[in-house]
């Protein structure tokens, strides 16, 4: 009974790690190439290859081996370090699941702020 619960936990963990790598891969695919260079990170193709390998490795291998752990580390590095830097350089727009919003720096939560006029 305990082994069945542990196998279920590992299955859920495997799905979570695959989702993490897939999110990073899709996000990197929708970012602009010049934003990676402007953020002084590796180029877009490098991250696409690394995250694709992380996704495939997390699908093919057991969670308890070293390759999926390396894939998780690569996914976390992309999401925590590279993604915010590229997002900041590109103005926060673009990317996976993000709509483009216009506006100026003086816009408040309910529209433009006109200084009480």
Automatic annotation (TrEMBL):
Transmembrane segments: 6-26, 47-80
Origin superkingdom: Bacteria
Keyword Magnesium annotated: no
Stretches with biased composition (Low complexity): 103-117
Region described as Disordered: spans on this chain: 87-117
Keywords of this entry: Membrane, Transmembrane, Transmembrane helix
Membrane as UniProt keyword: yes
Protein name: DUF2516 domain-containing protein
Lineage of the organism: Bacteria, Bacillati, Actinomycetota, Actinomycetes, Kitasatosporales
